[in-house]
Design the sequence.
């Protein structure tokens, strides 16, 4: 069977996973948590993808090194400081792993590290040294523990992002859950922003990596808040095998079921990140259908979702579809006939066709306004030249985006 | 000699060129001009580059057809309506050429047409029919006539953009002048926004096209206001030969002098467009030096100038250089060592080094604020891996950009 049931518990939903989050003092505001941990006593298979930004965070360098054997037991993550472009960055990222490993009594090579926050400010390691024992002594597998962790990785996010599902493989109940954070400098490229997924599925590192690498193409990599690809993007999936299904070591039906579950978690977290984009008031979903191939579909969906002009028009509830056709038209390295394209814009209120066969279609401004007043907008682009499709997620461009980013460091 | 003297007169600075601009009624506000013309009685060599957006304006289709012989006498341009994605767009663009040609008594194939404004609203041709005679009857070669034309091509621009130079070829005085408009949907790709350049230089169409195609790579194509490549971008250079220099028909020294003059005009107009980007309070110039090749230099300069996060930080006078190193790092298809890169940020007030060898450099926040309070900011990126360089121009991202584009159509 392949039915999936949404459950509570985020990264603690899967058997054998514990988590926690505390305020250590990296962020000034003592109400805000800034240090998170995820831990599995059983050694996990690991899949991971990282930012391709050349100015990558020190945590990326260290995590790549620690996870190259495809195995891990824990992830330590701080918010409030990206530990990027700092002379002592790698040293401090390693120190974070060692601090966690020592208290957990495990090998530091089995710890991945993630950091998010301002770039270029030296990371103060003291708050982590002082609070690592409290953090780990209070590890637990309740949904509250998962929420502590999800809260501790937030920066400008306005809400926590977590999800979990239960499904069956070989008659065994398997769980998968994840958490993520946005919400600016979000335009992942072949990698992703911070996302952590845990599962008790029994699967090899190789198959887990394959599943993740394929899945991010249609999930995290299809999100854009501002077109800026971060230095610290990272997604890690930990699978500890405690569900005791027969190990997944090839692309069989069980692998497909697992991929489906992974996709559901990643899709949910991706949409939440777009919805919580800095300053956003609206989630914009752009679906491209009937494209000649999936690469074209993805490129066009992302071109539209990334357009500042489309984003600003959505903020203003202005059905300025000319900006959508414009963004379709300037998609790089894309081969298609604009005169076959049709554009629909819709929401909970309803849907309307605004562009067909290369030209505008007359529509009621009043109805258009009612559609765009909703907080989730769906743009559907029919390429009429094939059968491939793709979805991208973004948000509107608002005064608050400018406000948040005009003074991020202060 | 190759000394260049800045003179008045814009597109009327070159011998034999006349221009004018009026309010015809395409824009509602009767204080705003919306119809412009440039005319040379002598047949001109023409160079032209166009947007590569697949959803291109009807004027682009018609101009390409009319200019394919490399010859023209006039350009007609309206603002207030892009005449793009309209079922009768091509018909109306042709009608605009015919209206101008009939009054001028020339062949409509010798008229280029440009349109700028909202996409997808049918163009009302009546105001043009009614005012074409007044427009042309009052053609003149004074600087006021050039200004009338420069004003009539503006949309959300806040000031006119025009420039002219005088220089010598073969002992003959040659003039070149141009005008352009921005100011949103500005991210030209292998083409340009609206820019019109006139010169009395004697040069073949072939050499003129070669000079222009090469020059836009380092001028208009290095400008970005919002990352959105317009449907109607177009740059036309008209050369009527009235300076009577020996015709330029090969890449000799005279060709180089002409290229230098063309570059000065196009560079000035490019910078003005960036400075007048929608909602902008600051011009941002990004110079990449010591790159391994010019393509890399251009890509990196443009990546930085296009970053929403860099733009918002500049608006907030926040020396958040991490966003600059981040934008350098995510430059697509770029091969370089981030650990060799050095970043300086400066203005009229002074300059400071903020990043060196892959790491941040300590600096005074007080001094940084004084640098960033100025209205022209220069970011210099030393790649330390070669001798090539490039400059890109952009502007800050402000509340007003969002305001202007949240309700452009209303």
Sequence:
């Amino acid at each position: 069977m392949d039915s999936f049931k949404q459950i509570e518990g985020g990264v603690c939903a899967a058997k054998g996973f514990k988590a926690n989050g505390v305020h250590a003092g990296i962020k000034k505001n003592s109400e805000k948590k800034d240090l998170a941990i995820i831990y599995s006593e059983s050694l996990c298979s690991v899949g991971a993808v990282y930012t391709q930004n050349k100015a990558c965070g020190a945590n990326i360098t260290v995590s790549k090194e620690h996870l190259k054997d495809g195995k891990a037991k824990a992830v330590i993550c701080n918010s409030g400081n990206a530990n990027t472009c700092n002379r002592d960055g790698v040293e401090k990222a390693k120190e974070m792993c060692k601090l966690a490993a020592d208290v957990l009594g495990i090998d530091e090579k089995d710890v991945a590290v993630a950091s998010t926050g301002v770039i270029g400010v030296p990371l103060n390691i003291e708050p982590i040294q002082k609070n690592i024992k409290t953090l780990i002594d209070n590890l637990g597998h309740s949904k509250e523990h998962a929420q502590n962790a999800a809260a501790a990785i937030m920066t400008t996010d306005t809400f926590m992002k977590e999800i979990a599902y239960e499904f069956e493989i070989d008659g065994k109940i398997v769980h998968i859950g994840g958490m993520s954070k946005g919400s600016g400098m979000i335009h992942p490229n072949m990698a992703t922003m911070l996302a952590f997924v845990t599962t008790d599925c029994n699967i090899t590192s190789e198959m887990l990596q394959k599943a993740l690498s394929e899945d991010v193409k249609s999930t995290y990599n299809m999100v854009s808040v501002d077109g800026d690809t971060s230095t610290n993007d990272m997604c890690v999936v930990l699978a500890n095998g405690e569900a005791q299904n027969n190990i997944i070591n090839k692309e069989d039906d069980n692998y497909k079921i697992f991929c489906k579950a992974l996709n559901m978690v990643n899709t949910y977290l991706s949409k939440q990140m777009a919805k919580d984009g800095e300053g956003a008031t609206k989630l914009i979903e752009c679906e491209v259908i009937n494209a000649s191939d999936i690469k074209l579909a993805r490129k066009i969906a992302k071109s539209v979702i990334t357009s500042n002009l489309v984003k600003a028009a959505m903020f203003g509830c202005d059905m300025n579809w000319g900006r959508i056709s414009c963004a379709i038209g300037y998609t790089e390295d894309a081969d298609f006939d604009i005169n076959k394209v049709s554009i629909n814009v819709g929401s909970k209120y309803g849907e309307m066709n605004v562009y067909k066969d290369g030209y505008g279609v007359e529509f009621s401004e009043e109805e258009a306004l009612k559609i765009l007043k909703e907080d989730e907008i769906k743009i559907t682009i029919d390429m009429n030249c094939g059968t491939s499709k793709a979805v991208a997620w973004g948000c509107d461009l608002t005064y608050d985006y400018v406000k948040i980013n005009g003074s991020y460091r202060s």
About this structure: Chain B has a mean pLDDT of 91. The longest strand of chain B covers residues 35-50. Residues 5-273 of chain B form a domain with the L-amino peptidase D-ALA esterase/amidase fold (CATH 3.60.70.12). The CA atoms of residues 271 and 393 of chain B lie 6 Å apart.
